[in-house]
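ok so I'm stuck.
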Amino acid sequence: MKVLGIEQFPTPGSLGSSSFGETRMWRVTHGSYWKNDMMKDAITLWRELEEESGEELMLKFPVLSMGSLESKDYMNIRSQYPELPKLSPKEISEKYPALHNIPDDYEGLEHENCGVVKARKALQTVTKLTQVKYGAELLFDTKVVSVDKNSVTIEDGRTFYGKDICVCAGAYSIDFDKDKIATRREIEYIVFESPEGLPGGLLEFTKDGNEYYGMVDGDNFKMGEFAQRSISSMKDYFRDRMPEKFTQIKYFHPCYITMTDTGHFQYKTGKDGVHYAYGFEGTGFKFFPLHGKIVHDGLITKKDQTHIPDEYRAKI
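replied:
not stuck anymore, here's the structure
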């Protein structure tokens, strides 16, 4: 198979892209059972990629999920793992002394089969493999202005032709999808020094439906707010939950994600004949190799056997 990949940013994981930063969290503690099944499939593919490349791309460590007993998301996770010990607010603070002011109606659990993907390293590794071993041509710092069933036109006026055209541009896919079923949203991460006193990965679910998440990022730790009402609300949360860390903020950085009308993935062939794969709601990187398999098996060969419900399965 002859493949051409076109990327508007100059390097893998550029600032402002959804894959910016050193790490992305992976876990089998999603509220949706099928996402956990997908994660298990993705782990297998990540390990195959590690073996093929000789690079370590995944780190494994416990991730703490905590939240209000009135949170639907937390209770969905809790119901899938009744065997895991439940931690009280006091026990959470004693184990992770950097976490403060945990509400009385909170509870926590830790799952061992979680961790982070080395995002920047993974992008660099895949780029090298696809170019050197598999002979793909990759164009960086190249902006696409239009696509149709069998062609792609870039900003300098050149047009490339192919049998299958697939748009997998994350938050920028909606610039090409004529169905316009998604919106692009910016999230700001807070990056601070010294992860000491914190779990390697953290998920917090509030009773009003908000979600905060954090993870080690190289020598730093980064926190984000999924709903992100404002930077000031994120700062207020951070100042209350991790007061000692608030003085260690190094910088903020943006991350763009796609919000779909279903709140899930989109794998489809549009009326224009172009294949589209996007809408991972900011959680897609951990499924990275599995998304590639779904795109190929579902949209190209039409033999998708992955753990994804029929309503979200690749549609021709």
